[in-house]
Amino acid sequence: MKSTVRIVLVAFAAGVLGIAASLWSTGPGPLLGPMLRSEVGQRTLQGLASASAPPAPPGLAVAQRGQPMPPLTLPLLDGQAIVLPDAYAGRPLLINLWASWCGPCIEEMPELDRFAALQDANGTQVVGIALDHADDVRVFLRRTPVSYPILVDVAGPRDSGVRLGNPRGMLPFSVLVGADGRVLKQKLGPFEPGEIDEWAGRH
Questions:
Q1: What string of pLDDT tens digits covers the 203 residues of the chain?
Q2: Given CA atoms 40, 11, 8, 167 in this order, what sign does their dihedral have?
Q3: What are the Cα distances from residue 202, in Å, to 154, 192, 193?
Q4: Which domains does the chain possess?
Q5: What is the DSSP secondary-structure string of 161-190?
Q6: Are 84 and 72 in contact (CB under 8 A)?
């Protein structure tokens, strides 16, 4: 009986996620948009994503809201390794996972860049993590440069997206980390114009 219930729940979650994925490309519309962007909507969406995803590999530390962020060591495009969140200790950190082939990711990048440019030395540090090939990222950033740091990771079952709480690898995905290193928020989907200021400012 329990296995049957689980199969039904997983199938339901997969269906909901399929609908959500289509909304990423077509837009959620005036009714669903605010619901999906709300904290309750995000928690529900992420709960469904986790329920229908394969379990994390054994021993992999996965970020949880309210808990310290598991450290990530990733390279910049020049090869220099950065440890998150330690590299920006004492500042809030907004981590955005994206890829050069992801349309919604590309559409939200100017908004992320605008927000990053408004921050002072103690403000929120924006960091992008590209789940992509480094050469493709370099080509993309030559056409569409951003002012915030971009790290690179290889997509897979142990990638930084999975470790930050995105087991299905849906992009874009953002995480807000407090100045004390605790995970405050996680967001599936792109930021709408102006949304990021309130999202990163209220927690």
A1: 544 434 333 333 344 444 444 444 445 544 445 555 556 555 565 555 656 667 777 889 999 999 999 999 999 999 999 999 999 999 999 999 999 999 999 999 999 999 999 999 999 999 999 999 999 999 999 999 999 999 999 999 999 999 999 988 899 999 999 999 999 999 999 999 989 999 998 65
A2: negative
A3: 31, 16, 16
A4: 1-52 (no CATH), 59-201 (3.40.30.10)
A5: HHHTT-TT--SSEEEEE-TTSBEEEEEESP
A6: yes
